[in-house]
Structures are given as structure tokens and as C-alpha cells.
Amino acid sequence: MSALAALLAPSTGAGRAQEVVQRISEAVHLGLLSDGERLPAEVDLAAQFGVAPMTVREALAELREQGLVETKRGRNGGSFVRHPKSPPIEPQRQRLAAMTVSELRDIVDEHQAVAGRSARLAAERASAVNVRRLFALTEQLRTADGLGDRIRADCRFHIELAVAAQSTRLTRLEASLQAEVSGLLWLPLGPEIDLDAMVEEHHAIATAVVSENGEEARRLTEEHVAGNLRRLTALHLLLTEEGAQL
């Protein structure tokens, strides 16, 4: 199962348009749906999510309001994906401020376990296509223009590691974790992320995978993810201090 298929799996809450909105918006922000890509017809989307066509229609209307989907009429019409230049900032600020350091640590612990295992298995199982994708996504991160493109390139790299591990469960978990963490990690607060350092780390992980060095790939990936906790904790404390001053 691909990361996109994992996110668009049947809904656990039939009849809930908001869940459909969340799942499609996550796929857009993670770059699993390409800019300009045509979504399946409403009846087909409804079947994918396991909901009624009317539920999908309501979800698409909200996605249009958010600027994530554009609907065109006519023979070549349909609903098309529109990548935002930046994800919504304020909801992510509020979510991070409401979390505790313990909750952040738990998320990063889980991400280290999933990403580290994915990297190790990728070194054993990755195809030539997977490896090319890892290096291409590293280059996309280096040349990304704007916050939205950077988030998508970063997320896709980690998801591709799980895809390269040839594990449906790890891919599903990684996609879910990226949807949960990426918007927080890239919040434009405090010191900027050292993009050059991140690109170097991605390149080193990809090199370990292509070298079939599973232990090195795991170690590098776990160290890379550990840096997320330091940034998330620093941003959380910053928001806490801002809140105390109000």
C-alpha cells in the first residue's frame, strides 16, 4: 500500500465530511497529491473513503473554501488539487502551545522507532526506483521555494523511506506521523531550520540506504528525528512564554 492509499483508506467515521476534509488536506500538504492533479470522481472518492457521495460533496465544498481544491466544469472538468504556498499557521501554533513536553517526547519517540526501522529495512529492500526517489527528494528540499514546498519535500523523503522498506504498516504509520508533526516542526517561529544541515542529513541517510548499510541508515535517521524534539520543545517553550506575557 502506498502512503496516499493509506491516507485515503476507508473512513472510520462514516458520514463525517470533516474526516474526509482532513485526510485529503493532509495528502495535499504532504505532497502525496500533486499540484493540479485531478481527484477521482465523487462516487469513486466516496467508495474509497467508505462514505456517502453527499459526504464527499460537502467535503469538497470545504476544501474549495480552503483553497486546496479547484472545481472546473465541462468535458475536461473535475476537482483539481491546488498546493498552498504555506499550510495554515495559526491552528498549528495553537495545537503546539496546548501540548505538553511529555506529549512531544512521546511523538518523537514513536517517530524514531518507525523511521529508524524503516531506514534499516530500506537498506535491505529498496529498489533502484526508491533510491532515485530519495536522492531526488533530497534535491527538491534543497531547491524548494517557500515553506509549503519545503514541508512537502521533507515529508515525502521520510515517507519514501517507509515505502522503500516495502512495509505497508510502516508506510501508514510514517504518513500519519508526518501529518501530525510536520506542520509543527516547520512553524515559522524562533530560529529558522538550518536547511543546509537538513539536506546533508537526508543525503547521508540516502547514501547509507544505497550502500545497503542498514545499521548506519537506522542510526542516522534516529539522530535526525531526535533533532525534531529539540526544535519542538524550543518552539513550545517560546509559545508558552508568549502566552504568559499576554
From TrEMBL:
The keyword DNA-binding applies. Keywords: DNA-binding, Transcription, Transcription regulation. Gene3D superfamilies: GntR ligand-binding domain-like (1.20.120.530), Winged helix-like DNA-binding domain superfamily/Winged helix DNA-binding domain (1.10.10.10). Residues 14-84 form the HTH gntR-type domain. It holds the Pfam family GntR. InterPro entries: GntR_C, TF_FadR/GntR_C, Tscrpt_reg_HTH_GntR, WH-like_DNA-bd_sf, WH_DNA-bd_sf. PANTHER family: GLUCONATE OPERON TRANSCRIPTIONAL REPRESSOR, TRANSCRIPTIONAL REGULATOR, GNTR FAMILY. This is FadR/GntR family transcriptional regulator. It comes from Actinomadura sediminis.
